[in-house]
Amino acid sequence: MTDDVNTGRVIADGIRVAHTDNPPEVIQADFNVRSRFGVAPFDALFDSESTGNITERLWVFGDGYENNTRDYITHGYATPGIYTVSLTVSGPFGSSTKVKEAYVTVGETTMPEVLLQAEFSGSNQTGTVPLESSFRDLSSGDIVSWTWDFGDGETSTEKNPIHVYDTPANYTVTLTVTDVNDSAKEVKDNFVLASLFDMQIDNVDYPKTHFRNKTILKRKELEIDRSKLKYSRMFLLSCNTGNYYMHTFNHGIYFYDLSSTWMGVVPGWTEYLMAYFAGKSDEDIWEILQSYDPVYDYYDFSKYPWDQ
Question: Residue 258 to residues 175, 236, 245, 283, 284: CA-CA distances in angstroms?
């Protein structure tokens, strides 16, 4: 989209086209944790399953620590205790907070008693009808039965069901689990958004969608002054180096994937380190990585398309 056909000056990086009869868009905070019980020091892996156009988030872990940079985060509990965790998300349509009381239990030397607690996650929560969403039970305790209410009048007694939504709406999903003595319930409001039509169209073949459906749009500023940094370059190695940037930078303009070792082949991160310690410039390192694995998506929005 341009304001001058001859120059191609970019005035919009992308547009969103949505049906006027789509259900109202809302902000809804929600999250789960991979395991709620452990022995100190205990690492809890939290995953935001919030819905809506989210631009900011704030985790409060109940032990004095907070985080506002990531949707998928591991937090370490150093001290035994029972912790209440909350997540607040906000965006153009408002804000929402989800608080889970006595959510994480950390023992001192022995594993704490695992209590009956309903918990679940979902995938493909947003899309157009017919929308096929899948649900995964994450509950704790000696469970003997599961009852799902998908919010559209349909139910299931499967442990990990798949459900198809045929009517556009915001749906609240409920899971009730029972053991031989009691039952527990988890309710997730506005957990599924089924629309008639909703599409984002970019003026270039970008941004790309990568791990956990994240897209990279801009770089997050450093929270530490550059003068206080000990090193001039930061390196992180994981199964996918880009995961760190996607969750920490929120929106970036670059992404590259340095593959792990496979069949004896030198991995991409080794190429990176060898080039860096050899004193290669950023441009030289970029060329080396491109020749190794050309999956570097880059678009400089400060330049005209013909200057890329």
Answer: 40, 11, 13, 17, 16
**Class for the domain spanning 23-112:** mainly beta
Beta-carbon contacts of 145 under 8 Å, excluding residues fewer than 6 positions away, are: 157, 177, 178
Q: Is the dihedral of CA 274, 208, 54, 13 positive or negative?
A: positive
* pLDDT higher than threshold 70 for residue 277: yes
C-alpha 175/C-alpha 121 separation (Å) is 10
Residue 118 has pLDDT above 90, yes or no: yes
**Residue type for position 126:** T
Comparing C-alpha atoms, which of 5, 3, 13, 4 is closest to residue 201? 13
Q: Which sequence spans correspond to the domains of the chain?
A: 23-112, 115-196, 208-307
Q: What is the Cα Rg of the chain in Å?
A: 23
SS3 123: strand
The DSSP-derived string for 162-208 is EEEE-S-EEEEEEEEEE-SS-EEEEEEEEEEEEES-EEEEESBSBSP
Q: Is the pLDDT of residue 205 over 50?
A: no
142/157 Cα distance (integer angstroms): 16
Report pLDDT digits (tens) over 77-111: 999 999 999 999 999 889 999 999 999 999 999 99
| Residue 307 DSSP symbol | G
187 pLDDT above the threshold of 70: yes
Note whether 19 and 197 are within 8 A (CB). yes
Contact call for residues 33 and 46 (beta carbons, < 8 A): yes
115-196, CATH topology level:
Immunoglobulin-like (2.60.40)
Q: Of 68, 61, 70, 67, nearest to 42 (Cα)?
A: 61
